[in-house]
Every structure is written in C-alpha cells, then in structure tokens.
Amino acid sequence: MSNKLVKAGDARVEEERRSKLTKAADAHIDPAVPAERQHVPITVAGLPDVSNAEMAAFDPRDIKGTPAERIQQFDALLEKEGARAVRFKVRYDMVLGLVLAEVNETEIYTSEYQTFEEYAQSRGVSRPRAYALMDAAPVLRILLSSIEDIPTLRPAVSQALRLVDSFKQDQETGVRLVLDRAAEMAREAAEVDARQKARRAAEKAKAVAHAAAQREARARGEEFTAALKSVTEEDIAAELAQQPALKHAPITAASIEAASIELGYTEPPAKPEPATALANATTFLGAAYKAVAPRTVEALVKEDPEQARKLLDAAEAELRKIERRINDGRRAIDKTALAVPNPRVKDPAEDVLDAETIEGADAESVGA
To answer: Which long-range contacts (CB under 8 A, 24 or more apart) does 189-197 make?
Structure first.
C-alpha cells in the first residue's frame, strides 16, 4: 500500500475522531427544545481547571445579588461549564440541575421570564428534562466526589435517577450503599459471564480434539469407540487462567436498580395478579375488536388499500398467536383441573383447518 493511501486513511480517522469530539460538546442540548431556544455554550479558551471534588462542592446559594444579577452569574457559570462538556458532561449536568433547582425554589426567574419552564427552555432544557436534572443533581454531586471512573456511569443522569430513592431515605450513605452493592453485582455478573465463556471454550476444545482423534482412527483403519469427555472444573479453571484478569466491571443501570431493590430503597415492580392480567387482556382484545370495525377499515381502504391489507394481516397474525396461547391454557386446565366441570361444549367447526374454512366461506358466498 502506498504512503499516500496510508496518510489519507490516517487523515480520515483523525477527522472522524474530531467530529465525535465536536458532537460530544453539544451532548447536553435537549432535542425536545426547538433549535431557536437552544442555549449553546460559548467556547472559552484557557479555562482554569477545577477538580471534580471542588466542583461537587458548588452551592448555588453562595452566588449572591439581585435576582437579575444571580441569573446572569448562573448563566456565566453554565457557559464556562458547557465549554468543558467534552470532558465533564456529568459535571455540567450536576451544575445545571442545582442551578435549575435554585432558580425554581427562589423564583428569581420572574425578573426576566414569566415561568420557570420558560427559563429552562432558555437554557436548552425541556420541562421534563429540567425536573429530571433537579432530582438527579444531588446524586450527581455524590458521584463526582466519590466515583473515579465517571464514564462507566453514563448516561449519568438516568443512572442518578435510579439512586434518588436511596438519597431521599439515607442521603449520601444510601447512595454509597447502593453503588457498592451494584459494583458487587456487576462484578459477580462479569465473573459468571467469564465462567460461561470458559466452559464454552473448553467444550469446543474437547470437541475439536475428539473429532481429530476420530479422523486419525479412520485414517489408520481402526474403530473409534472413545466417548467425548465432559468438561471438568479443572478444564474451566485452565481456560479462566488464559483469559485476561477482570480488572473492572462497569456499574450498569440494571445493577443499580437491582441493588436498590435488594437494599429496600426501591419497591420491586408490581406484577399484576393472573386474574387481573387476563381481565386486562380481555379489555385489550375488546379495543382491538372495535379498531377493526368495518367503517374504520373501509375508511382506510379508501385512503391506502395496501396499508389496510398489511395492518389487517398483522392483526390477524397476532390473533393467531393469542389463539394458540389460549389453546395451551385450556390444555393446562384440562391437565391440572380434571375434576372441574367444563361447561364449554366443543364446536366441531374448531377442528376445521383455516384453508377449509376459507374455502367453505367462499363457496357459500358464491352460492349466495
């Protein structure tokens, strides 16, 4: 390969890398806010570096002045933090959440804006995002001061929201307890995954060796009767020893949520009772029955016959799956509740194949 091609390839890679960094600087912008309302941070050169621990101690109440002066100082601070967004996205979200909470609580936004939502939009944040940031900010403060590998918690705001319950109940202690348990869960899951990979590798190696022995026996004209040996704990240990040491298992959203539930900070998701679930299914099916009313279908046919056909085919496919599950459920009832009388009389027409039913229907329509 010529040097020109190599240089061109390197230049393209560097251009893509710079493009990604440029996009990352805008990562705090909320897509739910119109472009004209977006508040893009200015580029500030030579900013003094402030440690995460120092920034975690930031308190909006320390910024004094009239409401208008405080708003201006908050905006200036967010401008500077926004310029660091490539490296300190978590920090920007924390500062923004704390500022939004202070502005909302003190109502100093009234000096320039009619509502808090209008102020939030001036910062490029939609209303739901603003309230999510305000809930997450106290937890992000803890993460900044205690978690070294912040990128493992990205997107940090969504992770922090999973820690809000523990923060409300036990403040920083609760957050640290959940994070410690989540780290243990993540490490345990990684160890299980590594062990499964080692087992699969050992099984594959034994299968390859077994197949090679078979081929050699056939080549010598001998009968091969040896059975494939099963994988032992020693085989798994040997494979694990060849794998790189597990240095760090990233904390995931699933591990945070599981740890919070295990420690009693978050209620486990409620599962509907079987009777309720089946009753809901009946309601949903009733809604589906109404949705395919002749008038509705006819109106769609006039607009787009092909789309009407596709949608009806999809609905029919779902109905077939539901029918199969209903039949499975009836068989389960027959096996486990033989003593329960079944008032339902079997209709011989149910045994007719779909194709026969269709053909019969067509014949009737022709005869009519």
So the answer is: 189/249, 189/255, 190/246, 190/249, 191/246, 194/240, 194/243, 194/246, 195/236, 195/240, 197/239, 197/243
Report the 3 state secondary structure along the chain.
CCHHHHHHHHHHHHHHHHHHHHHHHCCCCCCCCCHHHCCCCCCCCCCCCCCHHHHHCCCHHHCCCCHHHHHHHHHHHHHHHHHCCCCCHHHHHHHHHHHHHHHHHHCHHHHCCCCHHHHHHHCCCCHHHHHHHHHHHHHHHHHHHHCCCHHHHCCHHHHHHCCHHHHHHHHHHHHHHHHHHHHHHHHHHHHHHHHHHHHHHHHHHHHHHHHHHHHHHHHCCCCCCCCCCCCCHHHHHHHHHHCCCCCCCCCCHHHHHHHHHHCCCCCCCCCCCHHHHHHHHHHHHHHHHHHCCHHHHHHHHHHCHHHHHHHHHHHHHHHHHHHHHHHHHHHHHHHHCCCCCCCCCCCHHHHCCHHHHHHHHHHHHHHC
Quote the tokens at residue 321.
């799956």
Q: Quote the CA–CA distance of 291 and 285 in Å, as a whole number.
A: 10
Rounded to the nearest 10 degrees, the angle between the axes of helix 305-336 and helix 294-303 is 140
**Length of the chain counted residue by residue:** 368
Give the pLDDT confidence of 184-231 residue by residue, as tens digits. 888 888 888 888 888 998 889 888 988 898 898 888 888 888 888 888
φ, ψ of residue 100 to 5 degrees: the values are -60, -40
| Per-residue pLDDT tens over the stretch 260-279 | 999 999 888 777 677 777 78
Is the pTM of the predicted complex or chain greater than 0.70? no
